[in-house]
Amino acid sequence: MKKILREQARKFAFNFMDEPQLWVKPGELFEIxxxxxxxxxxxxxxxxxxxxxxxGFDRYPPLANPIAGPVFIEGLERGDTxxxxxxxxxxxxxxxxxxxxxxGPLGDSYRWSDIAGEYSTxxxxxxxxxxxxxxxxTLHFNDQISWPITPFVGTLGVAPDRDVCNxxxxxxxxxxxxxxxxxxxxxxxxxxxxxxGGLFYLGxxxxxxxxxxxxxxxxxxxxxxxxxxxxxxxxxPQGIRIxxxxxIITLHAYRPLExxxxxxxxxxxxxxxxxxxxxxxxxxxFVSTCPDFRINVYQMCKIGKLNYVAGAEVLKKYLPNIxxx
Length: 325
What we know:
By secondary structure, the chain is mainly beta. It is built from three helices and 21 strands. The chain has helices at residues 113-116, 257-276, 280-289; strands at residues 3-4, 13-14, 22-24, 30-34, 67-73, 81-91, 94-99, 120-127, 138-140, 146-148, 152-158, 165-166, 171-172, 175-177, 188-192, 200-206, 223-232, 241-243, 247-254, 294-299, 308-315. It has a nine-stranded mixed beta sheet with strand order 1-4-17-6-15-18-19-21-20. A six-stranded mixed beta sheet has the order 3-5-16-11-14-13, with no helix packed on it. The protein has a four-stranded antiparallel beta sheet with strand order 7-8-9-10, with no helix packed on it. The protein is globular and about 55 Å long.
Protein backbone atom coordinates (compact mmCIF):
# COMPACT_ATOMS: atom_id res chain seq x y z
CA MET A 1 0.00 0.00 0.00
CA LYS A 2 1.28 3.47 -0.88
CA LYS A 3 1.93 5.79 2.07
CA ILE A 4 2.88 9.30 3.04
CA LEU A 5 4.91 8.92 6.22
CA ARG A 6 4.58 11.26 9.18
CA GLU A 7 8.06 12.65 8.56
CA GLN A 8 6.83 13.79 5.13
CA ALA A 9 3.57 15.31 6.43
CA ARG A 10 4.99 18.72 7.29
CA LYS A 11 3.48 21.09 4.72
CA PHE A 12 1.87 24.30 5.93
CA ALA A 13 0.09 25.51 2.81
CA PHE A 14 -2.29 24.38 0.07
CA ASN A 15 -0.10 25.26 -2.88
CA PHE A 16 -0.82 24.39 -6.53
CA MET A 17 2.90 24.78 -7.28
CA ASP A 18 3.93 21.92 -4.95
CA GLU A 19 5.32 18.74 -6.48
CA PRO A 20 3.11 15.74 -5.62
CA GLN A 21 4.23 13.46 -2.80
CA LEU A 22 2.12 10.57 -4.08
CA TRP A 23 0.36 9.48 -7.28
CA VAL A 24 -2.74 7.27 -6.98
CA LYS A 25 -5.48 5.91 -9.20
CA PRO A 26 -9.23 6.16 -8.52
CA GLY A 27 -10.26 3.37 -6.17
CA GLU A 28 -6.72 2.78 -4.93
CA LEU A 29 -6.48 2.56 -1.14
CA PHE A 30 -3.55 4.44 0.39
CA GLU A 31 -2.44 5.71 3.78
CA ILE A 32 -1.39 9.04 5.28
CA UNK A 33 0.29 9.34 8.67
CA UNK A 34 -0.53 12.71 10.22
CA UNK A 35 0.96 14.92 12.88
CA UNK A 36 -1.24 16.59 15.46
CA UNK A 37 -1.88 20.31 14.99
CA UNK A 38 1.22 21.22 17.05
CA UNK A 39 3.62 18.83 15.26
CA UNK A 40 4.19 16.77 18.41
CA UNK A 41 5.00 19.66 20.77
CA UNK A 42 2.47 18.70 23.49
CA UNK A 43 3.61 15.47 25.11
CA UNK A 44 2.85 16.11 28.81
CA UNK A 45 0.78 18.58 30.80
CA UNK A 46 4.01 20.48 31.52
CA UNK A 47 4.17 21.50 27.87
CA UNK A 48 2.37 24.85 27.78
CA UNK A 49 1.17 26.80 24.75
CA UNK A 50 3.60 29.67 25.37
CA UNK A 51 4.29 31.06 21.88
CA UNK A 52 7.97 31.80 22.59
CA UNK A 53 8.56 28.12 23.40
CA UNK A 54 6.86 26.70 20.30
CA UNK A 55 8.82 26.09 17.09
CA GLY A 56 7.43 28.05 14.14
CA PHE A 57 5.64 30.64 16.29
CA ASP A 58 8.11 33.31 15.26
CA ARG A 59 6.30 33.33 11.88
CA TYR A 60 2.92 34.77 10.92
CA PRO A 61 0.77 32.88 10.59
CA PRO A 62 2.55 30.36 12.82
CA LEU A 63 3.81 27.09 11.36
CA ALA A 64 0.98 25.07 12.91
CA ASN A 65 -1.55 22.57 11.59
CA PRO A 66 0.75 20.54 9.33
CA ILE A 67 -0.69 18.66 6.35
CA ALA A 68 0.49 15.94 3.99
CA GLY A 69 0.42 16.19 0.22
CA PRO A 70 -0.27 16.95 -2.42
CA VAL A 71 -1.63 13.67 -3.72
CA PHE A 72 -2.05 13.54 -7.53
CA ILE A 73 -5.11 11.57 -8.66
CA GLU A 74 -4.73 10.10 -12.14
CA GLY A 75 -7.46 11.11 -14.58
CA LEU A 76 -8.72 14.03 -12.49
CA GLU A 77 -9.05 17.33 -14.35
CA ARG A 78 -10.16 20.89 -13.76
CA GLY A 79 -13.96 21.02 -13.68
CA ASP A 80 -14.35 17.52 -12.26
CA THR A 81 -15.46 16.51 -8.77
CA UNK A 82 -13.16 14.61 -6.43
CA UNK A 83 -14.97 12.17 -4.15
CA UNK A 84 -13.00 11.42 -0.98
CA UNK A 85 -13.77 8.16 0.83
CA UNK A 86 -12.28 8.11 4.33
CA UNK A 87 -12.00 4.39 5.03
CA UNK A 88 -10.25 4.26 8.43
CA UNK A 89 -8.85 6.59 11.07
CA UNK A 90 -6.71 5.11 13.82
CA UNK A 91 -5.65 7.76 16.32
CA UNK A 92 -2.63 7.68 18.64
CA UNK A 93 -2.64 6.63 22.29
CA UNK A 94 -3.24 10.20 23.52
CA UNK A 95 -4.67 13.54 22.47
CA UNK A 96 -4.34 17.05 23.92
CA UNK A 97 -6.00 20.42 24.36
CA UNK A 98 -4.22 23.63 25.32
CA UNK A 99 -5.75 26.88 26.60
CA UNK A 100 -4.46 30.04 28.22
CA UNK A 101 -3.80 33.77 27.83
CA UNK A 102 -4.78 35.25 24.47
CA UNK A 103 -5.99 31.86 23.20
CA GLY A 104 -9.61 31.50 22.19
CA PRO A 105 -12.66 33.57 23.19
CA LEU A 106 -11.88 33.60 26.95
CA GLY A 107 -8.13 34.07 26.70
CA ASP A 108 -8.36 37.66 27.93
CA SER A 109 -11.43 37.37 30.18
CA TYR A 110 -11.39 38.97 33.64
CA ARG A 111 -14.36 36.86 34.71
CA TRP A 112 -12.60 33.61 33.69
CA SER A 113 -9.26 34.44 35.24
CA ASP A 114 -8.22 30.81 35.73
CA ILE A 115 -8.27 30.46 31.96
CA ALA A 116 -6.80 33.82 31.03
CA GLY A 117 -4.25 33.97 33.82
CA GLU A 118 -2.07 30.99 33.02
CA TYR A 119 -1.49 28.34 30.39
CA SER A 120 -3.11 24.92 30.87
CA THR A 121 -2.59 21.72 28.89
CA UNK A 122 -4.66 18.56 29.25
CA UNK A 123 -3.49 15.20 27.92
CA UNK A 124 -6.23 12.64 27.29
CA UNK A 125 -5.47 8.93 27.37
CA UNK A 126 -7.04 6.64 24.77
CA UNK A 127 -7.89 3.03 25.50
CA UNK A 128 -8.52 0.49 22.71
CA UNK A 129 -11.99 -0.83 21.99
CA UNK A 130 -13.31 -4.33 21.32
CA UNK A 131 -11.43 -4.43 18.03
CA UNK A 132 -8.13 -3.93 19.83
CA UNK A 133 -7.40 -0.47 18.39
CA UNK A 134 -8.39 3.14 19.00
CA UNK A 135 -10.70 3.03 15.97
CA UNK A 136 -13.46 1.93 18.36
CA UNK A 137 -11.75 3.02 21.58
CA THR A 138 -12.48 5.39 24.45
CA LEU A 139 -11.17 8.86 25.29
CA HIS A 140 -10.68 9.49 29.00
CA PHE A 141 -11.30 13.16 29.82
CA ASN A 142 -10.47 12.50 33.47
CA ASP A 143 -10.95 9.71 36.03
CA GLN A 144 -14.75 10.17 36.04
CA ILE A 145 -15.63 11.24 32.47
CA SER A 146 -15.03 9.35 29.23
CA TRP A 147 -16.66 8.95 25.82
CA PRO A 148 -16.16 7.01 22.56
CA ILE A 149 -13.37 8.22 20.31
CA THR A 150 -15.07 9.83 17.31
CA PRO A 151 -12.18 10.65 14.97
CA PHE A 152 -12.38 12.90 11.94
CA VAL A 153 -10.07 14.86 9.66
CA GLY A 154 -9.98 18.54 10.57
CA THR A 155 -8.11 19.86 7.54
CA LEU A 156 -8.39 18.59 3.98
CA GLY A 157 -8.87 19.86 0.47
CA VAL A 158 -7.48 20.32 -2.99
CA ALA A 159 -5.19 23.12 -4.16
CA PRO A 160 -7.11 26.38 -4.65
CA ASP A 161 -7.45 27.80 -8.15
CA ARG A 162 -4.88 30.63 -7.95
CA ASP A 163 -4.18 31.37 -4.29
CA VAL A 164 -1.68 29.76 -1.96
CA CYS A 165 -3.49 29.33 1.38
CA ASN A 166 -1.87 28.47 4.69
CA UNK A 167 -3.09 25.36 6.51
CA UNK A 168 -3.92 27.20 9.74
CA UNK A 169 -6.31 29.90 8.51
CA UNK A 170 -6.97 28.90 4.90
CA UNK A 171 -10.59 28.03 4.06
CA UNK A 172 -12.69 28.01 0.91
CA UNK A 173 -14.89 25.95 -1.37
CA UNK A 174 -11.76 23.88 -2.09
CA UNK A 175 -11.42 22.85 1.60
CA UNK A 176 -8.96 23.95 4.30
CA UNK A 177 -9.04 24.06 8.09
CA UNK A 178 -12.77 23.43 8.50
CA UNK A 179 -12.95 21.03 11.50
CA UNK A 180 -16.07 19.31 10.19
CA UNK A 181 -16.84 16.28 12.34
CA UNK A 182 -18.54 14.65 9.34
CA UNK A 183 -15.18 14.27 7.57
CA UNK A 184 -15.14 10.78 9.06
CA UNK A 185 -15.11 7.12 8.00
CA UNK A 186 -18.21 5.99 6.16
CA UNK A 187 -18.94 9.36 4.56
CA UNK A 188 -18.21 10.69 1.07
CA UNK A 189 -16.79 14.20 0.64
CA UNK A 190 -17.26 15.99 -2.70
CA UNK A 191 -14.67 18.63 -3.62
CA UNK A 192 -14.59 20.90 -6.69
CA UNK A 193 -11.34 20.49 -8.67
CA UNK A 194 -9.24 23.33 -10.07
CA UNK A 195 -6.02 21.64 -11.20
CA UNK A 196 -5.00 18.50 -13.05
CA GLY A 197 -4.66 15.69 -10.53
CA GLY A 198 -6.59 17.65 -7.91
CA LEU A 199 -3.53 18.06 -5.65
CA PHE A 200 -5.14 16.80 -2.46
CA TYR A 201 -3.88 17.56 1.08
CA LEU A 202 -4.87 16.15 4.49
CA GLY A 203 -3.95 16.57 8.16
CA UNK A 204 -5.14 17.77 11.59
CA UNK A 205 -7.03 14.72 12.89
CA UNK A 206 -9.16 15.12 16.03
CA UNK A 207 -10.04 12.27 18.38
CA UNK A 208 -13.26 14.11 19.27
CA UNK A 209 -14.74 17.62 19.19
CA UNK A 210 -17.80 19.44 20.44
CA UNK A 211 -19.90 21.69 18.23
CA UNK A 212 -18.07 24.94 17.33
CA UNK A 213 -14.68 23.84 18.80
CA UNK A 214 -15.27 26.75 21.19
CA UNK A 215 -11.77 27.04 22.66
CA UNK A 216 -10.13 26.81 19.24
CA UNK A 217 -8.58 23.45 20.09
CA UNK A 218 -10.24 20.03 20.15
CA UNK A 219 -8.80 16.63 21.17
CA UNK A 220 -5.78 17.03 18.90
CA UNK A 221 -3.95 13.85 17.98
CA UNK A 222 -1.69 12.06 15.55
CA UNK A 223 -3.27 9.43 13.34
CA UNK A 224 -3.12 6.94 10.53
CA UNK A 225 -5.72 7.69 7.84
CA UNK A 226 -6.65 5.34 5.00
CA UNK A 227 -8.56 6.82 2.08
CA UNK A 228 -9.50 6.24 -1.54
CA UNK A 229 -10.91 8.46 -4.29
CA UNK A 230 -13.59 8.46 -6.96
CA UNK A 231 -13.95 10.88 -9.85
CA UNK A 232 -17.11 12.47 -11.24
CA UNK A 233 -16.22 13.80 -14.68
CA UNK A 234 -17.37 17.14 -16.03
CA UNK A 235 -19.30 18.28 -12.97
CA UNK A 236 -18.15 20.56 -10.18
CA PRO A 237 -20.30 21.51 -7.15
CA GLN A 238 -20.49 25.11 -5.98
CA GLY A 239 -18.99 24.17 -2.63
CA ILE A 240 -18.10 21.17 -0.51
CA ARG A 241 -20.74 18.47 -0.18
CA ILE A 242 -20.95 15.43 2.10
CA UNK A 243 -22.98 12.26 1.77
CA UNK A 244 -23.48 10.16 4.90
CA UNK A 245 -25.34 6.84 5.00
CA UNK A 246 -28.49 8.72 6.06
CA UNK A 247 -28.18 12.32 4.86
CA ILE A 248 -26.62 14.91 2.56
CA ILE A 249 -24.81 18.03 3.81
CA THR A 250 -23.63 21.27 2.21
CA LEU A 251 -20.92 23.44 3.79
CA HIS A 252 -19.90 27.07 3.82
CA ALA A 253 -17.26 28.99 5.78
CA TYR A 254 -17.78 32.71 6.35
CA ARG A 255 -18.24 35.47 8.91
CA PRO A 256 -20.66 36.40 10.35
CA LEU A 257 -22.21 33.04 11.19
CA GLU A 258 -25.59 33.96 9.72
CA UNK A 259 -23.97 34.37 6.29
CA UNK A 260 -22.35 30.93 6.56
CA UNK A 261 -25.77 29.47 7.48
CA UNK A 262 -27.49 31.35 4.65
CA UNK A 263 -25.04 30.22 1.98
CA UNK A 264 -24.93 26.60 3.18
CA UNK A 265 -28.74 26.58 2.94
CA UNK A 266 -28.71 28.04 -0.58
CA UNK A 267 -26.15 25.42 -1.60
CA UNK A 268 -28.48 22.73 -0.24
CA UNK A 269 -31.42 24.16 -2.18
CA UNK A 270 -29.30 24.08 -5.32
CA UNK A 271 -28.46 20.40 -4.69
CA UNK A 272 -32.15 19.57 -4.17
CA UNK A 273 -33.08 21.30 -7.45
CA UNK A 274 -30.19 20.13 -9.64
CA UNK A 275 -30.06 16.49 -8.52
CA UNK A 276 -33.29 15.51 -6.79
CA UNK A 277 -35.91 17.17 -8.99
CA UNK A 278 -37.22 19.78 -6.55
CA UNK A 279 -38.64 22.97 -8.00
CA UNK A 280 -37.06 26.16 -6.72
CA UNK A 281 -40.25 26.96 -4.78
CA UNK A 282 -40.40 23.48 -3.24
CA UNK A 283 -36.74 23.58 -2.21
CA UNK A 284 -37.23 27.00 -0.60
CA UNK A 285 -40.31 25.87 1.29
CA PHE A 286 -38.80 22.49 2.24
CA VAL A 287 -35.83 23.90 4.18
CA SER A 288 -38.20 26.09 6.17
CA THR A 289 -40.81 23.47 7.01
CA CYS A 290 -39.15 20.04 7.25
CA PRO A 291 -38.70 19.23 10.95
CA ASP A 292 -35.57 17.21 10.16
CA PHE A 293 -33.75 19.98 8.28
CA ARG A 294 -30.69 20.78 10.38
CA ILE A 295 -27.99 23.44 10.58
CA ASN A 296 -24.70 22.15 12.02
CA VAL A 297 -22.22 24.68 13.40
CA TYR A 298 -18.95 22.84 13.10
CA GLN A 299 -16.39 25.56 13.78
CA MET A 300 -17.07 28.95 15.38
CA CYS A 301 -13.98 29.92 17.34
CA LYS A 302 -12.61 33.44 17.58
CA ILE A 303 -9.07 32.77 16.41
CA GLY A 304 -7.16 34.74 13.82
CA LYS A 305 -8.85 34.98 10.45
CA LEU A 306 -10.82 31.73 10.73
CA ASN A 307 -14.32 31.90 9.33
CA TYR A 308 -17.27 30.12 10.91
CA VAL A 309 -18.22 26.80 9.30
CA ALA A 310 -21.88 25.86 8.94
CA GLY A 311 -23.52 22.83 7.34
CA ALA A 312 -27.06 22.38 6.06
CA GLU A 313 -28.29 18.78 6.40
CA VAL A 314 -31.22 16.90 4.84
CA LEU A 315 -32.15 13.27 5.56
CA LYS A 316 -32.15 10.94 2.57
CA LYS A 317 -35.59 9.59 3.42
CA TYR A 318 -37.03 12.78 1.93
CA LEU A 319 -35.10 12.50 -1.35
CA PRO A 320 -36.47 10.73 -4.44
CA ASN A 321 -34.14 8.89 -6.82
CA ILE A 322 -31.13 9.19 -4.54
CA UNK A 323 -27.92 10.06 -6.36
CA UNK A 324 -24.69 11.54 -5.13
CA UNK A 325 -24.29 14.73 -7.17
